[in-house]
Design a protein that fits this description.
Helices cover 60% and strands 14% of the residues. It has helices at residues 15-23, 38-45, 59-69, 88-97, 109-157, 161-175, 179-193, and strands spanning 3-9, 27-32, 49-54, 79-83, 101-104.
């Protein structure tokens, strides 16, 4: 059973959407009337998905979606937006902010479960891509640190690039630490002595 945080950013009652969610086998853990409540309620309620019912996605709603999409892995949640706004710019802005699925008003109760499934699948794929990017960025940053440390050894000890790398590698193996840790220590010591 999916736990849903329902956000009513409209002037109308959300009762019909709430009923459709319940009929689709979801548990509406809370219904809030302001998008500003989303991050705080995500932390405390830990829903599986956030559904925002809006006439048209406002700047405030989009900003809160960005906040949600930038939460750490494990804290962020898929966001489904149900809206009357069919303008391509509104749809693109919502997707760019981090909406996993944008549904034009009038979602059929029978299709709601499928929409939620698609939103979760897209969200999981996006999270996996973000995780992969983070890993690559970390490796690139580590490589830059090692390269800077090699440069210092080459300059101070008159070593060539291969000798500097092997010296750091040998020290890392002797101390049972990663080569990037040796490089960080070398850079810190160089900054201290500079």
């Amino acid at each position: 059973m999916l736990k849903v945080l329902l956000v009513n950013d409209t002037t109308k009652q959300v009762g019909r959407l709430r009923t459709a969610l319940i009929q689709a086998g979801c548990e509406v853990v809370e219904e809030v009337s302001s998008a500003f409540m989303i991050p705080k309620r995500l932390e405390s309620l830990q829903p599986d998905v956030v559904i925002i019912d809006t006439d048209s996605p406002s700047r405030d709603v989009l900003e809160q979606i960005v906040v949600v999409s930038q939460m750490g892995i494990g804290s962020a949640r898929p966001v489904v937006m149900v809206s009357n706004d069919t303008q391509p710019m509104a749809i693109r802005a919502a997707i760019k902010a981090g909406v996993s699925a944008y549904v034009v008003e009038g979602v059929d109760e029978g299709r709601l479960a499928a929409v939620l499934e698609v939103a979760q699948a897209r969200f999981e794929a996006d999270q996996e891509l973000k995780n992969q990017v983070r890993i690559v960025e970390d490796k690139l940053n580590e490589r830059k640190i090692v390269e800077r440390a090699k440069g210092i050894l080459m300059q101070l000890r008159g070593m060539n690039e291969s000798e500097a790398y092997h010296a750091m590698r040998r020290m890392a193996m002797d101390r049972n630490i990663r080569i990037v840790e040796v490089a960080e220590k070398l850079l810190a010591m160089n900054d201290l002595l500079a």
